[in-house]
Design a protein that fits this description.
Oligomer: single chain
Radius of gyration: 20 Å
Strand content: 25-35%
Distance between the termini: 11 Å
Shape: globular
Helix content: 25-40%
Number of strands: 19
Length: 358
């Protein structure tokens, strides 16, 4: 079986090998033939060590495909069924799940420490317990979420992470108020999805902030009312809010520097939503006086801040109704053999989402 493998954390290239085997199949598991997978920035963050992940590993967690085998004790899934991969399945029994905060369930994270693959040289892990840059992957049954026949694999893959994360940050976490002002810092696939979510909620002004001109142009097509480079954000804040700051600011980069800018761009009493996944040693500094005096809400948004299964269904319904554009999020397509080209597209910012066709 072919898969793209990162041998050591810190390497910037993947090696596509044909001697990889998906392992771990048994009771409670399913084997999926991956048909399409998106390249998410979290994959790159795991490769460079920003996100913790044992190596060697197969990146990829935003995938969709068909079930090719079903383990004992699995109900509701069958061979040939079309599914998307949920990298953070809810166990249904932990305190977070019982509180209805299924996006905070840790069961899925426990899978990251168990090898999903093997090669003649030894074990290979799958990123986030999945590893969708492979022709096949074995996952817990809860990671395989059935999709309707009219949802293409590439669209389903995006819903499995980036779209759900971005839309949910605006709809679930921030609950953007109609008529409000919004700024979104970082306009890749997740940021563009946050823009679409803010538009759905009725925001009056949506300012997209990104250093890459092509992403700023794309943001305008997806619902931003204005798009600026980072050094133009201060001027936009002055013009649009009379210097007060935006009602909602979304940080979709995952760095303390941009989070600090986002905080300063949020009005007093406004809401800063932290969507980007950053490093454990990158600290955001706030002094105690401003934290008290400004009364700004700081809301992290994990996987869209809501029940992921309900969020998947909502995204599909909105896509079917033409209320959100998912097809245009896919700006590049490459076969698995050219995965490093996809990585270059992400690093240069030329892609919103690259679909790897497997």
């Amino acid at each position: 079986m072919r898969a793209a493998v990162l041998h050591e954390t810190g390497q910037d290239k993947l090696e596509v090998l044909d001697d990889v085997e998906a392992v771990g199949f048994g009771p409670g598991k399913v084997k999926i033939r991956v048909r399409a997978t998106g390249l998410c920035h979290s994959d790159v963050s795991a490769m460079n060590g920003v996100l913790p992940q044992p190596a060697p590993f197969v990146p990829g967690h935003e995938g969709a495909g068909e079930i090719v085998d079903v383990g004992d004790g699995v109900g509701g899934l069958s061979v040939g069924q079309r599914v998307l991969v949920c990298w953070l399945p809810a166990c249904g029994a932990c305190p977070s799940c019982k509180r209805g905060q299924t996006q905070l369930c840790l069961a899925g994270f426990m899978n990251a420490g168990t090898p999903n693959f093997k090669r003649p040289g030894g074990d290979v892990f799958g990123f986030a317990g999945t590893g969708t840059f492979a022709e096949e992957v074995v996952v817990d049954a809860g990671c395989a979420v059935p999709i309707p026949d009219d949802v293409p694999f590439d669209i389903a893959a995006l819903i499995g992470c980036g779209v759900t994360t971005g839309l949910g940050s605006a709809i679930n976490t921030a609950d953007v108020a109609a008529g409000s002002s919004v700024a979104v810092i970082g306009c890749g696939g997740v940021g563009i999805s946050a823009i679409q979510g803010a538009r759905l909620k009725g925001a009056a002004q949506i300012v997209a902030v990104d250093p890459v001109a092509s992403r700023r142009e794309a943001a305008l097509r997806f619902g931003a009312t204005e798009a600026v480079s980072p050094d133009e954000l201060g001027d936009a804040k002055q013009r649009i809010t009379a210097g007060e700051g935006f009602d909602y600011v979304f940080e979709v980069v995952g760095k303390s520097a941009t989070a600090r800018t986002a905080y300063e761009t949020t009005r007093r009493g406004g809401t800063l939503v932290v969507v980007g996944a950053g490093a454990m040693d990158d600290f955001l500094q706030l002094n105690m006086f401003e934290l008290f005096f400004d009364e700004k809400r700081i809301l992290p948004s994990m996987y869209g801040g809501g029940d992921v299964l309900a969020s998947y269904e909502r995204a599909i319904a909105l896509w079917r109704a033409g209320r959100i554009d998912l097809e245009s999020l896919i700006t590049h397509r490459v076969p698995l053999a050219e995965i490093n080209e996809a990585l270059d597209q992400m690093r240069t910012g030329s892609a919103l989402r690259t679909c790897i066709e497997i």
